[in-house]
Amino acid sequence: MSAFIRSMRGSALVAMAALFAAPAMAEAPVAFERTACPASVAAVADCHSGRDDNGAWLLVAIPHEWNHRLIVHAHGGPRLGAPRAGDSDEDLDRFSVMVREGYAWIGSTYRRGGYGVRMAAEDADNSRRIFWAAWGRPERTLLHGQSWGGNVAAKAAELYALDGEGRANYDAVLTTNGLLFGGTRGYGFRADLRAVYQYYCRNHPAAGEVQYPVWQGLPAGARMGRDELRRRVDACTGVDLAPAKRTREQAARLRDILAVTGVAERQLISHLAWGTFHFQDLVHLRLGGRNPFDNTRTVYRGSRDDDALNAGVERFAADPDALARLAYDADLSGLIVLPTLTVHARHDPVVSFEAEAVYAATVQAAGRGHLLAQLATDEDEHSRLRDATYLGALDALEAWLDTGVRPDGSRIQAACLARVRDPADCRFTPP
Asked: Residue span of the signal peptide, if any (predicted)?
């Protein structure tokens, strides 16, 4: 965290918290109702749904043969719409192998859509307290987050790992493909993508539309659907066409955009969507219209004409207040107090594997390196890893808690191979 943040007055920090969060949940019971489980766990678990006092919807799955462990899940995204009952069904389905292995699971939609790591961290911890109140404290409680949820889980571990008496609320933390850069370092590549894309395509915004700096995502209140964004990207680059059907100009523009930004072709529209709709939410609703991104010194390389690109690309400087607000909300201190295991696919196309080194450096600088273990797999997906990866990670965490021996990729790979039918499911790699 920068000296600028550390020097801010307490009143300013309170004002920041108000932008990203809402009043804490009152200590009131949640009226859970039985609900249909996703098909992936329907035969092995009972599911319950309820809504907390802040408006977050909760989904609980309790296996018929419960191992008396609980996984508190922090979902990714963030989702931009208002939370609805049933939104967590997809999350439970994605991590259903944990429930089939015997773990109880609870997920929160969070109280509202949009960006807010501290808000989401509070809501995740609220879900833990609510589960404990309804079903009793399990033998172990594990905190898990994937993607942006990894940032949420890591923040929750910093804020809520201990109760007021210093006793642990969780036994360990697991992140998978986590956005462990924190907020101020996690999204700059998408701001670069917006700038580079606009240099080549000139259609987002298009001529004749209200012009705005691309770091805004969209102007406040402006509406654009994902289908319209896709139409524009395809018109410029032919990304939805077979390579042989793209015009020479489309192919050249697509090649330059991908080469300069490092974004994979299959993720181009997804990253541009994040840099459009999520940027609009982040900038206008969370940062008071201020810019947290900076490319004033960025040198773009890899195009057919780097000199022309660097001379003509839109430049923007970060506003210090926006950086301070985003850092307060989403950056990580590394001050962990629980065994923390991170697992990341080396070829993750959404959150770079480099996030792991950044987080390791943060934790080491805080003097907590002995509490961090990091594993890698050779997978190339972001949103869902192989079931064997999640099971291997959980086994490693349980063994760490039982024996005090930190997880090791080679040992976990060997244990994975001993339990699966298809060796290709085991993808853990050496450090």
From this structure: 1-26
Say what the pLDDT of residue 82 is: 96
Domain residue ranges in the chain: 3-182+331-429, 185-327
CATH superfamily of 3-182+331-429: Alpha/Beta hydrolase fold, catalytic domain (3.40.50.1820)
Q: pLDDT at position 20, please?
A: 55
Of 121-125, 150-154, 426-430, the poorest mean pLDDT is in 426-430
Dist. CA 421–CA 404, nearest whole Å: 29
Q: How far apart are CA 124 and CA 126, in angstroms?
A: 5
